[in-house]
Amino acid sequence: MKTRVLMVCLGNICRSPLAEGILKSKADAERIEVDSAGTAGYHVGNPPDPRSVAIAKKYKIDISTQRCRRFSRADFDRFDHILVMDRANYRDVISLAENEAQRGKVRLLLEYTHSGLQEVPDPYYGGDDGFENVYRLIDEACDRLIEEL
Questions:
Q1: Contact 52, 20 (CB under 8 A)
Q2: Which domain, by its residues, includes 59?
C-alpha cells in the first residue's frame, strides 16, 4: 500500500508544485504517491508559475505538466500526510477537517527541517532568488520526510 502525501500552499502555483516535484524526484513511486493543491481557487487548471518551473528545471525536475487544483475535504480521505507551507494554509486546511484523525494528518512542511523556520515564504511577489531559497528549504524538508516515510 502506498503512502500518499499532499503538498499545499495558497494558489498551487509556486511552493506546492515545487514541493510535489521535489518529493517525487526523491521518492520511490512504488511506495509514495505525491500530489499538490492550493487552499484558494485562483489558478485552478493553470500550470505552475514559470519561475517555479524554471527553478525545478535547474535541478533537473520537470513540473511543467502539473495543473493547479484546489484543496477539498475529500483530500483528507485520499492522503495520509497533508503538508502545508505556512500557518495561514494550515488554518485553512484545519478548518475543513471534520475530526481529530483528519487534523492529525496536517503538518507544516518545515517541521521536517532544522532551518529554524516554520513557514516556507511565498516567493510570488519577490525576485528569482526567492524561488532558489524556497527550493532549498523544500529540498531539505523532503530529504528528512523521505527518511521518516
A1: no
A2: 3-148
Mean pLDDT of 68-91: 97
Q: What is the DSSP string of 15-55?
A: HHHHHHHHHHHHS-TTTEEEEEEESS-TTTTPPPPHHHHHH
Could you list the active site residues?
9, 15, 122
Q: What is the CATH number of the domain that holds 87?
A: 3.40.50.2300
Phi and psi based region of residue 14 (left: phi greater than 0; alpha: psi -120 to 50; beta: remaining): alpha
**Rounded Cα–Cα distance for residues 131 and 15 (Å):** 8
The predicted-structure confidence for 15-66, as pLDDT tens digits, reads as follows 999 999 999 999 999 999 999 999 998 889 999 999 999 999 999 999 999 9
Structural domains of the chain, count: 1
**What is the grid cell recorded at 82?**
497533508
- Which residue type sits at 52? S
Question: Does position 128 have pLDDT exceeding 70, yes or no?
Answer: no
- Tell me the whole-structure pTM to 2 decimals: 0.94
Checking phi first, is residue 116 left (phi over 0); if not, alpha (psi -120 to 50) or beta? left
Quick check: helix, strand or coil at residue 108?
strand
CA distances to 72, 74, 148 from 116, rounded to whole Å, are 30, 32, 19
- Determine contact, residues 120/138, Cβ cutoff 8 Å: yes
